[in-house]
Amino acid sequence: MPATITPFSRPLYLMAKPVGALCNLACKYCYYLEKSNLYQENPKHIMSDALLEKFIKEYIESQTMPQVLFTWHGGETLMRPLSFYQRVMELQRKYAHGRTIDNCIQTNGTLLTDDWCRFFHDNHWLVGISIDGPQEFHDEYRKNKQGKPSFVKVMQGINLLKKHRVEWNAMAVVNDFNADYPLDFYHFFKQLDCRYIQFTPIVERLHQHSDGRHLASVDERNSSEPLADFSVTPQQWGNFLCTIFDEWVRNDVGEFYIQLFDATLANWVGEQPGICTLAKTCGHAGVIEFNGDVYSCDHFVFPQYKLGNIYSNTLIEMMYSDRQLQFGQDKQDKLPRQCKECTYRFACNGECPKNRFCTTPDGEPGLNYLCQGYYQFFDHVAPYMDFMKREFLAQRPPANVMEAIRKGTI
Ligand SMILES: C[S@@+](CC[C@H](N)C(=O)[O-])C[C@H]1O[C@@H](n2cnc3c(N)ncnc32)[C@H](O)[C@@H]1O
Ligand code: SF4
Ligand code: SF4
Ligand code: SF4
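ok -> structure tokens follow
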């Protein structure tokens, strides 16, 4: 199994939420926790066995390829007992009909035990652990409802994963608090010997909804929704990326895999980037909630982006519906002229539509809030990317860039 899976290049892909938005933590910046307000009428936010079976059967049968990827997401996935995931395996075997099935699971890591790790190892699951860097950064926002920090428990979880040789990678968010310390952040992951690192910028705006949710969707941009204070600024994001890139490109190419750098190189050479935010279009990755509701994307779980429910529509109908195709195509069609004419459009593609709530200097809507940071990053890495592209096209390792820098030829 590959150490990192890039689901967005696959034809039909859904992230499943077996406990909806329920969680044992209450990270201040979390976009998903408040989604439970969408389901106030449901007493329990738990995927039933009947729905699980229906989903697994239909999901496998909808695939056009011999490999099938399941992603378990939340909320906190480990709030289901191990027996739930053992049942998942049983159902996957029942409906596989010769297909290869992979599983990844995203977790905050605090509930990991020897039993969980044995299960993940024995069944080759890839485990994504959320950790925001060194303790002081992580604990600033990743606390439980009583305000108790989670770092120590997450590290215990990571040690268990290592002990049981489970394949894992780190998902870290970059927010107002940790963004100014890129090297502390990067060295932390290197010291952990974590070779696959994903960074996501936190960008949220506040908008009070009548059901209690307080985060805005991209459509809610007519009044001036304030930015949530934990959001990273465009300048912070640009500096953060450039600083880590400078260390990585000199020492770590081919050794440490940083998803955003890899995706940037992929766009530079004209391959599919393994990250949706830098891809030309969206719409390849939906979400299925605990009750069978399907949404366009994990960051668009809003009533207006609900595609239907698995009990009334097939997954194929929903994921290939005109609405979903349009959702995907809008990423490219709705780019403002500034992006269409941007030197780095081929690398950036206007990034994630959820962050496109700004206007260009000439008043056109749809500019990405992080534009300045991304432009700074792409402009900074361009000579190195050009070099790595040449190496790649000549079938030599892009890691030769490190030697070229040492010799001063770049
Ligand atoms: C919503 S959590 C669900 C899985 C699990 N509870 C966890 O924390 O890994 C999935 C990922 O989204 C990240 N995340 C949370 N809030 C975010 C936000 N506002 N913007 C971007 N990513 C966010 C988390 O740090 C985590 O890595
Ligand atoms: S652990 Fe995951 S789901 Fe829970 S609050 Fe934190 S980011 Fe959200
Ligand atoms: S909306 Fe954003 S998160 Fe969703 S698929 Fe598009 S780029 Fe990815
Ligand atoms: S860098 Fe800015 S202008 Fe260029 S494509 Fe990205 S968001 Fe658009």
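The longest helix spans residues 371-393.
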